[in-house]
Design a protein that fits this description.
CATH topology: Purple Acid Phosphatase, chain A, domain 2
Radius of gyration: 15 Å
Number of domains: 1
Order of helices and strands: EHEHEHEEEEEEEE
CATH architecture: 4-Layer Sandwich
CATH class: Alpha Beta
GO molecular function: hydrolase activity; metal ion binding
Strand content: 25-35%
Keywords: Hydrolase, Metal-binding
Helix content: 10-25%
CATH superfamily: Metallo-dependent phosphatases
Distance between the termini: 13 Å
Enzyme class: hydrolase
Shape: globular
InterPro entries: Calcineurin-like_PHP_lpxH, Metallo-depent_PP-like, MPP_YfcE, PdiEstase_YfcE_CS, Phosphodiesterase_MJ0936/Vps29
EC number: 3.1.4.-
Largest sheet: 6 strands, mixed
Strand order of the largest sheet: 3-2-1-9-10-11
Number of helices: 3
């Protein structure tokens, strides 16, 4: 199974275009969007090329392939533009290996506030805009970072699950973090 992860697009058309091109090149079966899809949020500057209606139009072309969760900047008004569900606070992805991915944005559940999980489960979230792929206690924490507003001196990035390897890669093809699950 191959999954592509993106988080915190914040309505940026350029970022969305880059994400979708990378998703196409990756050959992944699903595009997993970790929230903050259309709105830039009150704490962020308006991104260059901010165009939520066009971002929605581009993403809707992939509606059958998208698994999405709600971020803290997403609202019911945003959902009206999108043809795939994105208002759930979390989703479970079950891998053929038996490993479970708990997919969420990160503002409600994260490394510091975990739902009931078993040893070896993976918490996949965005929100912090900081890439990570590492064991923390009993679970793996995985964050693909952000393409629109990367933080912590990191490059814009996305995540990929390819077989049993989770990796965060920059758009310059630098692997920023990687872990085997």
């Amino acid at each position: 199974m191959k999954l592509f992860f993106s988080s915190d697009l914040h309505g940026c058309l350029d970022a969305t275009t880059k994400v979708l091109a990378a998703y196409e090149r990756s050959g992944a079966e699903h595009l997993v969007i970790l929230g903050d899809v259309l709105n830039h949020g009150p704490r962020n500057a308006v991104p260059s090329h901010y165009n939520p209606p066009k971002v929605a139009e581009l993403l809707n072309r992939y509606k059958e392939q998208i698994i999405a969760v709600r971020g803290n900047c997403d609202s019911e008004v945003d959902q009206m533009l999108l043809q795939f569900p994105m208002m759930s606070d979390y989703a479970w992805v079950m891998l053929p290996s038996g490993c479970r991915l708990f997919v969420t944005h990160g503002h409600l559940y994260n490394a510091d506030k975990r739902p009931a999980l078993k040893h070896g489960d993976v918490i996949v979230h965005g929100h912090t805009h900081i890439p990570i792929a590492e064991w923390q206690g009993e679970q793996i924490i995985f964050n693909p970072g952000s393409i629109t507003f990367p933080r912590g001196d990191f490059e814009p990035s996305y995540g990929l699950l390819d077989g049993n390897v989770l990796s965060v890669t920059s758009f310059d093809n630098n692997v920023l973090a990687s872990i085997e699950i």
